[in-house]
Amino acid sequence: YALWRFPMLTETFIRREIEALRASGTDVEAVALGKDDPRMLDDRASPAGDVKYYGPADTDLGRAQIRRMLARKPLTVFKLWLFIVRRHDNRLRTWWRDRDLLYASAQLAALIEALRDTPVHSPWGNHHSLVAFFAARLAGVTFSAEVRASEINRFGEARNRFAIRRHC
């Protein structure tokens, strides 16, 4: 499960999903960019369990990860970069936000590679789901996401995700 912040007070249902998967014998790793703020107390009804954090976002580390991946998968990195800069989902986009998106994806991809062939799942169809998708492509693993109707209407990234497979 790739998340932006975890655990979060408003997302106890995700904690319960992860707990149910673990109880069924499925090996689930929760990875997140960071912890929720303000810090929440552990909920005994739905414990977060172990969470691996790959943040905060670090430009130098992201740049180093992209250089490493460029040496191994130059075409994949180039295609992802082209997709990032050509997408039309947000009028507030800037080149440094695009760069940071690629760098965050590289940081998550490095963690995914360390977990060895772990499929990536995002429980949201938002900006961080796009980071998780790019990270999965960089790591060479499968990706899935839960996209709700409100996210399709609210976030341009969710609409773009359906077109990504053709381009990357």
Structural descriptors:
three-stranded parallel β-sheet; 168 residues; 5 strands; two-stranded parallel sheet; mainly alpha
Question: Can you describe this structure?
Answer:
- The chain is mainly alpha-helical and 168 residues long.
- It contains 7 helices and 5 strands, in the order βαββαααβαβαα.
- The strands form 2 sheets. It has a 3-stranded parallel beta sheet.
- Helix 3 runs antiparallel to helix 4 and helix 4 crosses helix 5.
- The protein starts with a strand and ends with a helix.
H/E series: EHEEHHHEHEHH
Mean pLDDT metric: 79
Q: Strand content of the residues, in percent?
A: 5-15%
Q: N-to-C terminal Cα separation, in Å?
A: 22 Å
Structural class: mainly alpha
The residue ranges in which pLDDT falls below 50 over 5 or more consecutive positions are 161-168
Radius of gyration: 16 Å
> How many strands, which pairing sense, and closed or not: the largest β-sheet?
3 strands, parallel
User: Total number of β-strand segments?
Assistant: 5
Basic shape: globular
- How many separate helices? 7
Please state the oligomeric state of the protein chains shown: single chain
What's a quick, concise take on this entry?
The protein has 168 residues and is mainly α. It has helices spanning 12-23, 59-72, 74-86, 95-114, 127-139, 149-154, 156-167, and strands at 2-5, 30-34, 51-53, 120-122, 143-145.
